[in-house]
Design goal:
single chain; globular; mainly beta; five-stranded antiparallel sheet
């Protein structure tokens, strides 16, 4: 079982992006700041979803070859599993302690560490999923 870490921009960059105001703008304390985190020029529309998560274990990971995907925690404690390749030793886990974007092609899934959790998800309107059946369960501790 991979050891879960808190997400930060450095330790998560292999898998995606943290949704946050860029450091270079934080110093300006006088104005509101709007910053675009990611642009998908060839996107064919997008969708926003709400996930009421009750799964405490995951026996598969999924990936989207043609879509970035944001995970924005709303309620509860969530564990995010990610991997660049479909090899069990490649699986990493993170506490979903801030909003993130998972890169295209990254294997991923989420489980709740509380009775239930809520997550806001944004992704392309049409998503092609590929599934990796693990043969074992990923659980939080």
């Amino acid at each position: 079982m991979p050891v879960a870490r808190n997400i930060d921009a450095v330790n998560f960059r292999r898998y995606g992006l943290v949704i946050a105001c860029p450091d270079r703008y934080v110093k300006n304390k006088k104005k509101s700041i709007f910053s675009i985190v990611l642009t998908e020029p060839a996107a064919k529309g997008w969708r926003i979803a709400h996930l009421l998560l009750r799964d405490k274990a995951a026996d598969y990971l999924e990936r989207h070859i043609d879509s970035f995907e944001s995970f924005e925690p709303l309620k509860g404690r969530v564990l995010l599993f990610v991997a660049k390749r479909n090899e069990p030793k490649e699986i990493r886990s993170f506490y979903l302690n801030k909003p993130i974007i998972v890169k295209k092609g990254i294997w991923h899934n989420v489980v709740t560490l509380t009775k239930e959790a809520e997550i806001k998800i944004t992704e392309n309107a049409q998503v092609k999923c590929r599934y990796w059946r693990l043969g074992f369960s990923l659980k939080g501790k």
